[in-house]
Inverse folding.
């Protein structure tokens, strides 16, 4: 009998990748297609149909589908996501000043309700009156609701009561903080819950699109999604907890890097369209950030790979610092649609506009820039102000030159708000365009890239000189800048992992002299202690120069461009459950976890009960997530100091981890 096939899919900001994998034959085929944000199913179907055609295999042999994505990561890096309401139970307004919660909330609505619990799970009475008064208006204001209760990880009853009320009166998706983390730290747990709520509609669109295509194609197989720590969860879980898919793509790339290179210890740098993700393999496993993944400006409570994400990629915005006498280019963190891609999709509109701008006697500040809708459903445009709605109505699905879209300078801020909501995308000159100018990439419209480069070269430095004499000169400048920023990103990530926070690679004179090989009486040099693995479609173009700058041995695997999709199909389901035991009064032990809450009089009986409920909860969760025959490992942490000759229990934490390969169709 033919061996079962596993289909891996990775949906990134620019490309959707697919691989077809067999445990006995390895990678049979791989393919890439453009990510189609207006209808994600189009990009998914094109990539999958191509990979099936290249392999010559029948779709009916596919027994497992696994999906990774950078959409959630990119959204947080770029400050995008749907509008969400935050319900805070037992907190005060002062708590918004902690852990960046108020900054993340912005102008989204927040409701404070009396209630909450203490560390032992004992309650303060809950009052849902304020929430009841707002329920009629909330659906018109937001696309989801986040609920965070004081010490909800000890007793989630108040979060559940608020959730049930919202669900009974609206159809809004609701996220409770206790479902996302069992760790203390209310404001950061509230931040994580808020971000989760904002991502629900985005991840739901991807999963719905994938399921719709698989059904249409006759592929009847379980669908798994890669979590931020590289483990797999069921698609239904990902719909409820999309925050767990932040760093999904990067985590999958680490698993893929290990599989493709066989290296146990390496620095892995994955360059995509929007971000560069840097992490470390140690002993064959990704290093995890147990304190919570940091993405963009926010540290979450999601346990994920110790990944450092930088807004630097092939589609990064190219900006000119115009204050200095000399030209200084910076890349990112905002993603643009490359002009070469815009010209590929709509050549007549884009080329005519670029040629018109080049005929003008003077350079315009909006030259080489276009706006287009991302294609998100109209429901996600809820809560737009009048000016935003008016501008949004003038923007279509096709690229339109900004010098005709914007009628006043004040509208640039309005446009930025539409971009931050994920409703509008800006097209402009990017490193991908520079590579088209230099002939190192050729998949899109090189003429649009050259015209965009000509427009960019007309811009002046502070001394009044053109930034570059020719499009090729400009492209080489951008290539060098990408090399340097990539090297700085890798060093920043590795120094942070070693808690060396006093050195900023972008500002250090010593590191600058080492990277540039500056001669002098004192010569500086640096190197890494393990090889560099470069992943991503453009890795072969950019990373030989990056490795040379860092003086490190490098590997660019044959399937570097689809490493995320490879990692998606070779991963495991892994679920964790934690039970806590505290001593609120002498001789009384409070056990919480796994949906259980009980007071026991005997400490050892309480410990045994906690072990049992943690193991049972982890195993049940792994089975629910699609694992086959999960194996359970258990760990304990007991804080029980001796005070005045008596042992006093502060907290005992019992952790169970259940893991196993996912079930496949027919099993």
């Amino acid at each position: 009998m033919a061996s079962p096939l596993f289909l891996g899919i990775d949906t990134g900001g620019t490309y959707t990748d697919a691989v077809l994998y067999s445990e006995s034959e390895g990678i049979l085929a791989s393919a890439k297609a453009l990510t189609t944000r207006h209808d994600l199913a189009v990009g998914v179907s094109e990539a999958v149909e191509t990979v099936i055609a290249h392999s010559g295999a029948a779709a009916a042999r596919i027994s497992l589908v696994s999906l990774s994505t950078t959409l959630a990561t990119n959204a947080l890096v770029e400050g995008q996501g749907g509008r969400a309401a935050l319900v805070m139970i037992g907190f005060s307004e002062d708590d918004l000043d902690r852990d960046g919660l108020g900054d993340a909330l912005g102008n989204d609505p927040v409701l404070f309700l009396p209630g909450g619990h203490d560390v032992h799970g004992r309650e303060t009475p809950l009052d849902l009156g304020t929430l009841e008064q707002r329920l009629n208006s909330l659906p018109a204001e937001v696309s989801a609701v986040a609920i965070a209760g004081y010490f909800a990880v000890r007793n989630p009853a108040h979060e559940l009561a608020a959730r049930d009320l919202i669900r009974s009166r609206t159809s809004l998706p609701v996220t409770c903080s206790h479902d996302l983390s069992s760790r203390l730290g209310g404001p950061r747990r509230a931040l994580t819950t808020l971000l989760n709520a904002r991502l629900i509609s985005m991840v739901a669109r991807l999963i719905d699109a994938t399921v719709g295509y698989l059904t249409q194609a006759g592929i009847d197989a379980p669908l798994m999604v890669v979590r931020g720590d590289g483990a797999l969860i069921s698609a239904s879980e990902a719909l409820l907890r999309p925050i767990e898919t932040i760093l999904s793509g990067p985590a999958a790339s680490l698993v893929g890097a290990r599989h493709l290179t066989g290296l146990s210890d390496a620095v892995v740098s994955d360059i995509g369209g929007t971000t560069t993700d840097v992490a470390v393999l140690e002993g064959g496993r990704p290093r995890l950030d147990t304190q919570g993944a940091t993405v963009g400006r926010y540290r979450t409570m999601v346990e994920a790979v110790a990944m450092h994400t930088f807004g630097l990629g092939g589609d990064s915005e190219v900006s000119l610092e115009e204050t200095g006498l000399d030209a200084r280019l910076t890349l990112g963190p905002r993603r643009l649609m490359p002009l070469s891609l815009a010209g590929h999709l709509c050549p007549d509109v884009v080329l005519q506009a670029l040629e018109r701008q080049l005929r003008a006697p003077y350079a315009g500040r909006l030259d080489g820039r276009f706006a287009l809708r991302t294609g998100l459903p109209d429901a996600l445009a809820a809560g737009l102000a009048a000016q935003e709605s008016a501008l949004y109505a003038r923007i279509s699905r096709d690229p339109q030159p900004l010098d005709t879209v914007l009628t006043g300078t004040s509208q640039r801020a309005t446009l930025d708000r539409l971009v931050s909501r994920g409703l509008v995308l800006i097209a402009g000159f990017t490193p991908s365009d520079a590579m088209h100018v230099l002939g190192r990439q050729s998949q899109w419209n090189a003429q649009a890239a050259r015209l965009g480069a000509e427009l960019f070269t007309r811009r002046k430095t502070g001394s009044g000189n053109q930034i570059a004499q020719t499009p090729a000169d400009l492209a080489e400048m951008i290539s060098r800048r990408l090399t340097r920023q990539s090297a700085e990103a890798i060093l920043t990530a590795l120094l942070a992992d070693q808690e060396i926070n006093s050195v900023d690679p972008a500002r250090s004179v010593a590191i600058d002299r080492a990277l540039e090989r500056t001669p002098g009486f004192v010569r500086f040099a640096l190197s890494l202690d393990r090889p560099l693995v470069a992943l991503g479609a453009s890795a072969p173009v950019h990373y030989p120069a990056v490795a040379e700058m860092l003086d490190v041995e490098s590997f660019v695997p044959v399937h570097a461009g689809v490493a995320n999709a490879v990692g998606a199909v070779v991963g495991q389901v892994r679920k964790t459950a934690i039970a806590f035991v505290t001593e609120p009064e002498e001789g009384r032990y409070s056990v919480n976890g796994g949906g259980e809450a009980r007071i026991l009089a005997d400490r050892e009986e309480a410990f045994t009960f906690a072990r049992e409920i943690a193991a049972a909860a982890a195993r049940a969760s792994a089975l629910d997530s699609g694992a086959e025959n999960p194996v359970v490992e258990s760990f304990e942490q007991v804080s029980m100091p001796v005070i005045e000759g008596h042992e006093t229990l502060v907290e005992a934490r019992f952790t169970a981890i259940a893991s196993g390969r996912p079930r496949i169709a027919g099993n």
